[in-house]
């Protein structure tokens, strides 16, 4: 594989002015631990909370663009299309793409760990640092999430990366309101691309129950929080 010479991180956001600054600060810290220049693209999707004003707080390597798609798949796609239009000095085979969410905090080695994997795609895991749901919900979630042992079969748009040439080869993100990340992984798999699943590549995300994707991670947490129906068995 060609040696990587640059990286791009896309962050879709929809009215997340409270969490977005922390997410971007963590990404900037991660970019400082790489040996290549990193462009961060924030896609403000149908925002009316003043998120655009945050652009003044961050440096020239953080670009803000806007869309009215109201669709997380379309927002991620728009971010990478924008990156392709401005990152013209380095060919796609030498560019690493990654994406996370506006309510997610990455570690300082997040990008480096992805790029050193030597794969076409890298899939990490998520952890919830602050639970706002009942203890029993957290226990059910953790028991199911960690049931695979050292490996994992999870797909999170909040923690994934891929070579730019491989991304474009499979058609990129589609305008799906839910499971746009799963859809992309399925196309990488069908194209026989190399996929590295790293359970230790973890990011901290929120336990919010109101998410952007109708049937995404937040919906999964809502489902766990619902009271379980007791079944009466005649004896």
Can you give a write-up of this model?
There is one protein chain. This protein is an alpha/beta fold. The protein has a single domain, classed as Spore Coat Polysaccharide Biosynthesis Protein SpsA, Chain A (Alpha-Beta Complex). Helix content is 30%, strand content 21%. The protein has 7 helices and 7 strands; from the N terminus they run E-H-E-E-H-E-H-E-H-E-H-H-E-H. It has helices at 20-31, 72-86, 110-115, 135-145, 164-169, 180-190, 217-225; strands spanning 6-13, 38-45, 62-67, 95-99, 121-128, 160-163, 195-205. A 7-stranded mixed beta sheet has the order 3-2-1-4-6-5-7, with helices on both faces. Strand 1 (6-13), helix 1 (20-31) and strand 2 form a beta-alpha-beta unit. The longest helix is centred in the middle third of the chain and has 15 residues, at 72-86. The radius of gyration is 18 Å and the shape is globular. The chain starts with 5 loop residues before the first strand and ends in a 10-residue tail after the last helix. Mean pLDDT is 88; it is low at 229-235.
**Gyration radius, rounded:** 18 Å
**Biggest β-sheet strands, sense, barrel:** 7 strands, mixed
Low-confidence stretches: 229-235
Question: What is the tally of helical segments?
Answer: 7
CATH class group:
Alpha Beta
Provide the spatial order of strands within the biggest beta sheet. Answer: 3-2-1-4-6-5-7
SSE class:
alpha/beta
The CA-CA distance between the termini, in Å, is 65 Å
What is the quaternary state of this protein? Answer: single chain
**SSE arrangement, N to C:** EHEEHEHEHEHHEH
Indicate the mean pLDDT: 88
